């Protein structure tokens, strides 16, 4: 979730395909003959491209493959049907998968974001939030800071919504001020989280990124190590990067998401 797999602004042609859920992905592979497969899990980290676990019945794939074209689904089906790499055909499939240009972009971008950017206040994309959405995320941020973090986070971390994220639900961008003190440049959330039905994932993602912010400010750590997990347990978000719950995505990439989820009035007054 933190993996900041935001694709670079230039050179990316946004298409109008939807993105696949784990169950879409599974159904597509089973329809292609990978019938022993029982589950697909999207992983959002820098190291997993794909792996087969639980005796070949669970396929873990990098979340960038949510947008895999049909040819790559064929390749995944070959691997899953075979249970790994044994034949020439499956080796060719594995090479096609790891050579997919979008995967490289996603991994490179995640690495850059994890390394952090020294310049304070640098953002990698515009905020697409409507004024109502901006008020909503700010209210939620303040509420969680107050109720889960004992107010230990700064009140002025920019929280923006991104419509360019494809494989990630959110990220925390670490930075530093002129004096070299650690500060959080921004927290960004995928605008799709504002859609109806995403309430649990919306709250969990914001807490996940706020836990990164607290961990970074207090310890300087940026990953999902023990200090981040301690924050995650403390504030009540899932201490994992596994994306295995259904998330609703907008049907077309160029569609605007303007929905403001309902917020209890009390939160607006914090
Ligand atoms: Zn994370």
Descriptive keywords:
270 residues, alpha/beta, Zincin-like, four-stranded mixed beta sheet, three-stranded mixed beta sheet, 13% strand, globular, disordered N terminus, binds zinc ion
Characterise this structure.
By secondary structure, this protein is an alpha/beta fold. The chain folds into two domains: 85 residues, 2-Layer Sandwich (Zincin-like), CATH 3.30.2010; 152 residues, Zincin-like, CATH 3.30.2010. The N terminus is likely disordered. Helices cover 37% and strands 13% of the residues. α2 crosses α3, α5 packs across α6 and α6 packs across α7. A hairpin with a 5-residue loop joins β5 and β6. The protein has a four-stranded mixed beta sheet, with helices on one face. It has a three-stranded mixed beta sheet with strand order 4-6-5. The site of zinc ion has 6 residues, from α6.
């Amino acid at each position: 979730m933190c993996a900041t797999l935001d694709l670079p602004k230039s050179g990316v042609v946004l298409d109008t395909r939807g993105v696949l859920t784990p169950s879409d992905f599974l159904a597509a592979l089973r329809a292609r003959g990978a019938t022993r497969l029982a589950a697909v899990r999207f992983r959002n980290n820098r190291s997993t491209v794909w792996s087969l676990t639980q005796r070949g019945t669970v396929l873990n794939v990098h979340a960038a493959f949510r947008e895999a074209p049909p040819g790559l689904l064929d390749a995944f089906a070959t691997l899953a049907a075979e249970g790994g790499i044994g034949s020439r055909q499956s080796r060719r499939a594995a090479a096609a998968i790891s050579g997919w240009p979008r995967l490289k972009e996603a991994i490179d971008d995640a690495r850059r974001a994890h390394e952090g950017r020294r310049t304070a206040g640098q953002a990698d994309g515009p905020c697409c939030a409507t004024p109502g959405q901006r008020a909503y995320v700010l209210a939620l941020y303040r509420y969680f800071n107050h109720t889960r973090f004992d107010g230990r986070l700064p009140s002025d971390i920019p929280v923006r919504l991104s419509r360019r994220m494809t494989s990630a639900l959110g990220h925390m961008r670490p930075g530093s001020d002129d004096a070299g003190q650690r500060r959080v440049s921004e927290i960004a959330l995928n605008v799709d989280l504002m859609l109806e039905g995403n309430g649990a994932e919306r709250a969990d993602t914001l807490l996940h990124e706020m836990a990164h912010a607290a961990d970074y400010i207090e310890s300087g750590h940026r990953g999902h190590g023990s200090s981040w997990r301690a924050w995650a347990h403390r504030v009540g978000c899932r201490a994992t990067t596994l994306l295995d719950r259904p998330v609703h995505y907008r049907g077309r990439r160029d569609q605007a998401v303007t929905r403001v989820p309902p917020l209890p009035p009390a939160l607006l007054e914090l």
